[in-house]
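On clarity, I found the account of how folds are encoded harder to follow than it need be. Since the whole study asks how a given chain folds, the encoding of that fold should be made plain. The format is easy to grasp once an entry is in front of the reader. For illustration, here is how one protein appears when written out as sequence plus structure tokens.
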Amino acid sequence: MTDTTEANETTEEWALVELMGHRSLAGRVTEVQRFGATLMRIDIPGESDAFTTQFYGGQAIYCVTPTTEELARKAASRLLPRPTHPLLPPAQRSLYDDEDDWGDAT
């Protein structure tokens, strides 16, 4: 008989993740219970030891390739999700970012 504590433990691993819609990510992945469903949590490493966290349902996942932390971090730097707010009109940019970052664009 399996110990329930052991059965409920989730393991953390580094992986390359391919999602439906031709999207690829790399980072630290775990299986979590959220919103009444089992989801994959991916913590994507960014600059200065910051992480971006995203959650995906099993049906969105095409492939998960376990890898080393070193390789996942290298891949993540190329696949890092980019914010969409630079596409906002100038009047709305200050809501999301420091105006000094935009230079003379405003």
Summary: The mean pLDDT is 79. The chain is about 20% helix and 40% strand.
